[in-house]
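Form P-L/3: holo structure prediction, ligand calcium ion.
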Amino acid sequence: AKRRGKNTLSLFHSVMQENLMNRLKMESRMTDTLEKGLFQVFFQPQVDSITGDLKGFEALVRWFDTELGYISPDRFIPLAEESKIIIALGDWILDTVCRILASWRSELGFTGTVSVNISPVQLKCRDFTEKLKRTLDKYGIDPGAIEIEITEGILIDNFDQVIEILNVIKKMGMRISLDDFGTGYSSLSYLQFIPLDTLKIDKSFIANITRDGRIEYEITNAIVTLVNKLGLNTIAEGVETKEQMDVIRAINCRTVQGFYTGKPAPAIECERLIRSGG
Ligand code: C2E
Ligand code: CA
Ligand code: CA
Ligand code: CA
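OUTPUT (holo model):
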């Protein structure tokens, strides 16, 4: 199907980067890996910048292939989207996240949130919201414990339809987060239309927030100030150093996620963190 828009173009580019052989090979390996249940979900902590308390995690899919080795989601997610494998893979990720979250809640008394990345291909599926509800019910998950992460690219086609789906998700009690803010054609006007709880500032801003980064600093500071005034949560992504952490705290950005506070890790390693209260 031919669609228009920047998202389709960048998808086209990343898909073209893999040659045909690689694509076919990777697609068949992906299907095989999914059927055998060999994908994994890692979790990266999201931490209160002031108290250091653990607030939640972002779920990130991992693929360690027996033949191809480690393959980054930046490489295989575009292929999974193009081939529609993302729909079954996304279902598996959501089910796995809910199963793990249910056990953290019952066995460890975990009360934080888990954010799940949702591809536009998944979100625009007719039965997406019903599937969400079924999976939450299956594991008895409080909808407020799940945060759906989308990027602004999701709004490029079918703007009204997407806003309607997001409103349904919001009414179900789930949280909604706008990822990678500051890349692409980020516009503050989205804040009027998307029923947002959280805005995630892209790591390209955080990378330049200290050294020689007057512009990145000023933009981040202004965005955080505005988003705080609107009563939404802001997460600084990709915080790697103490210097970045200090700036983030000073400008009142309440949540951090990055290698400085914790790398993505398997569920079992996160359990230790939950037990120790972050
Ligand atoms: P994202 O949603 O922006 O995820 C954040 C990425 O930043 C992750 O890369 C994470 O490992 C990385 N990261 C975290 N802290 C730091 C840091 O301090 N420094 C640096 N340099 N990087 C950091 P990852 O896991 O390779 O994922 C890449 C992208 O693939 C994600 O970007 C997301 O767009 C996509 N993705 C990952 N998991 C899923 C998934 O389960 N479903 C879907 N649809 N997409 C996913
Ligand atoms: Ca994300
Ligand atoms: Ca991001
Ligand atoms: Ca990203």
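COMMENT: Residues 44, 59-61, 72-74, 77, 93, 117, 119, 179-180, 203, 238-240, 258-259, 264 surround C2E (ligand 1) (CB under 6 Å).
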